[in-house]
Amino acid sequence: MISKTRMPCRWTRKQQNRRGTIAVLTAFLMVPLIGMLAFSVDVGYLLKKRAELQRAADAAALAAVRDLIPDANGDQDLDLVRATVRQYAANNVTDVTDFVVLDSDITIGRFDPETVYTDFTILNDGVFDTVRVTLRRDASANGPIPLFFAGIFGILDSEVSASATAVLQKASFLPPGAGVLPFSIPRDEWTKTELVDPPWSIYGDGRMEDGSGASIPGNWGTLDLGSMSNSTSDLNDQILNGLHQTHLDELHADTRIPHSRYIDGSVPFNANADTGLSGGLKQSLNQIIGERRYIPIFDSVSGSSGNNLEYQVTGWAVANLHGVNFKGSNNSYVEIKKISTFDGLLRPNPDLSVTEGVIEGAYTSPVLVE
């Protein structure tokens, strides 16, 4: 019997050749594959670290901008603002001991309403209401972030930074609970008075004097911010406890304000004159000396005199009750000082470009804009 020699199958040889080719290709592609893996790991790590810096910058800006609230003298403590930025940065960046925020990375100023939605600009005048913070990990501060695998290609670290800008929103709406002084102040005189001026003396007979004793043009009086027949008891209640819903309901029922949920600072309304600076207000006024209140600003007065007068209220402002003196009808006066404040009870106007109708010097909750 003749034995047959089995020849190798052509298909088997092709499989072997393909296996060899795949092995060569795998070896050839291994370097870029490892590089891509290293790249993805390091990029993910950098994104995580940048997100941490961004959260820290957001928290620092939002906290620090609250420290721009002026004190009773109208002063702003910019050193406190910078200290708050550094404190929040240190608390929220976990892997750097003694995290450094450069002075040049903290910008404090006033935002320009005209450019707030186009080319955000920070101005260096007026009452400051804006804080911009940049946190960095680079050669100038805190060192670059070391990488895991990119060192294979000679890349040992990477620089990362994050910025945040926070502003104090302008207040426009007075809801129930807002602290008010039911006294009227002439708009023209108020708006041209600087924050640093001495207190005004406002007398029970309508006279007003500046800090040097010079007469201020215009008239002054107490107002009915509610019922047209407010009594001294009502005024005392408003001085101590602010606006009630019943006051807004009464103004709305008299069609003096368009709705009863709040007083819109951009909508003028008429308010009746009240009893004047009665001795019955002495006790309540003495209790709030040194505190801030919202005062209605008027631009015209109509009617004859006394309770027949009506003031056209065209806005609101913030004042500090500086002092009280009661010495008879002609010598009784209150002292108020123009001031700025932050009050969470006020409703903000979400449109940062609005300048009309805002409560002058009043800010509400901070908001991030960048």
Question: In words, what does this structure look like?
Answer:
This protein folds into two domains: 32-170, no CATH class; 176-345, no CATH class. Helix content is 28%, strand content 26%. It has helices spanning 10-66, 78-92, 187-191, 232-241, 245-253, 282-287, and strands at 106-111, 122-123, 130-137, 145-146, 157-158, 160-174, 183-186, 200-203, 208-209, 221-222, 263-264, 269-272, 292-302, 310-325, 333-338, 341-342, 347-348, 362-368. Strands 1, 2, 3, 6, 11, 16, 17 and 18 form an eight-stranded mixed β-sheet that branches. Strands 7, 8, 9, 10, 12, 13, 14 and 15 form an eight-stranded mixed β-sheet that branches. α1 packs antiparallel against α2.
Query: If you average the pLDDT, what whole number results?
Result: 83
Q: Please trace the helix and strand order, writing H or E for each element.
A: HHEEEEEEEHEEEHHEEHEEEEEE
Q: Which outline best applies?
A: elongated
Q: What is the gyration radius calculated from CA atoms?
A: 34 Å
- Chain oligomer state: single chain
Tell me the strand percentage band: 25-35%
Biggest sheet details? 8 strands, mixed
What is the percent of helical residues? 25-40%
Instruction: Quickly count the domains.
Output: 2
